Amino acid sequence: MLTKVLYERCGNLELNPTHFKQMIEKADPHLQGLFDKLVKALVPNNRSAYNKVEARKTIVSLCYIMAGMRNKFINDFKLEVRLYLSASGATRAAIDTMNSIGFSACYTTVNNFKRKIANEHPLNIRKFLSEHVNDYHDIHEKRRPDTVTLSTAKHMATCICKQVSGCAPIPIIFNNVSVHNLVNIDASNICFRLIWEYHGIFDIAYTNRKKQWLTNGQLATDTFDRIELLTVHCYDDAIAERKEEPLQMILDIDKNTGYLQNHIAPLVADWPGQLFVRKAITNLHKVDSQYSIPARINSFIPILGTLHVSLNSREHVLICKIRDIILTKFGSTCKDIEYRMVIDLLDNIIPATLDVYSILFRSAPLAFLSDIFYWQDTNHPFAEAVKLFLVNFNDYYVENMHSKIRSQTPVNSNIDNIIKQAYVIDERNHCELKDTFQKTKAYPYKPSLLNILAEKTSLFLLDYFQRIYKNCGKSKLCKSKKKIQCQLATLGKTVDTKCLPTGYSTNMPPLPDSCDHCRKKLDDGEVLICGHGYHFECYQMMEYGCRYCEEYYKREIYSNVNSFLDRLEKGPNVLTSDEQDETPIEENETVEEVEANGSQEVHAELLIALIHVNTW
């Protein structure tokens, strides 16, 4: 009876003991109590509660194996075992041995299963048009060179299709206006928006701007689980990328679907994607182009996708515990270079990076901003689509797929086996066997430990700020071989001005202890996050915006846009050495669970240190 029930449900493997028991008893009332009897007969009463739960899972497996002995077509469980063994790197001989024992399907059965999925895959992907084009970069790559080879990386084109539900197809040309800007990348429009719409926005630290958003009701105040925040991007497998754009694959599919006929296909891409797709579109519209570009390339719109964007109010523990008391101690007019550098880092750059975790590539953000402003100016419907469906334009889908492929392919897999396994992953979504039997790992950091780490960080920063306070005014700018650098008195290091706030990269670096407008002593007023400081009346005369930094932004915008346009029109069709990402070698490391000890002592020490700030 059990064999008949499981045979009739082939293709619906159920390994959850509770659901399995309910399934067989519902299918055949004569099987009422069978599973409980097996548990009672096979699981001793003196076992722990945890081991009893695990044993029930084993009994489910035993039921499938026994049924398979009576009917060879009941092979769902054996097939699942074989797929897991294959993904784990077991050899063909080892798998066939497990088949002889009766625990696994044979190699040929599984190979036929994979071939069937691979043959059906093109039919499935014709239903969608890819929004994400990426390149799978084998995590098992050997980057350390030897006498034979420099790298053993394996690459394959990856297209992740994501349907944007609720969004009607958007035409390339709407009201006689093309989605493509004839100017290509419009630096003047970006600068115009910078001056007239975003004037003074970069004068304020990101932390202060978030407070303004909260006050104005532009952000919701949410309570976040700090462990959840840390594990959002915690992968067992590192993701290292190298990209090539397999657009031809999509174009071949479109020959049958016809979706690209005068319709937009958003393409979330990284730097090579931005570069080469824009290069193709540029040459398509260029009258005297030397390249033969397919007309359907016109449908692709490169989108700068963010891997994770979270614009919510959350606590930044790096400086939040000591921020107000430090700002009060140094005062609003302190222009010490090292102090301004650290405040810019902790109060501006790091909080913004934690909230908006995005991968930005060279001139690509400027190109994307130019497109957004152009669509808004011309009232093209794609501007509204980006606004309404922004959550769909991110790299999560392709990166998540890559992570799954890496975790389910052995080191010695060739490219064909990796592709077959990718088809299986895409078809089956998850491994039932692994989900049921694999032991889960707890995240090693507990909330109590995070509190201790935050308070220890605060103690470290308090000590650092105290030393900066004692060395106030001693950090100096110096010229070295036509290059301006800064000698940091407290750290004892010489750094490039790129490490300093924006103001130190302008034609008018901040003056020490003086207003950067009237050049009189800055006894009242405020120092902006860029490093420039003004009397309140002087800042009002400048219409509440740092003109020196605005001129710097404008100059760099034009420089980067012109460089990018030159690269699109005249540059090589391959990535240069400067454009290739050098991915660091990541070693496997074991993180042991850490206990939080001495929390009361650390907390008491922090309270005393905060009180002693007034005695510096």
In short:
The protein has 23 helices and 13 strands. By secondary structure, the protein is mostly helical. The protein has a domain at 2-116.
Describe the protein.
- This protein has 616 residues and is mainly α.
- It has a domain at 2-116.
- It is built from 23 helices and 13 strands.
- The chain has a three-stranded antiparallel beta sheet with strand order 9-10-11, with no helix packed on it.
- Helix 1 (2-8) packs across helix 4, helix 8 (187-196) packs across helix 15 and helix 20 packs parallel to helix 23.
- The longest helix has 24 residues, at 447-470.
- The chain is extended and about 95 Å long.
- The protein starts with a helix and ends in a 5-residue tail after the last helix.
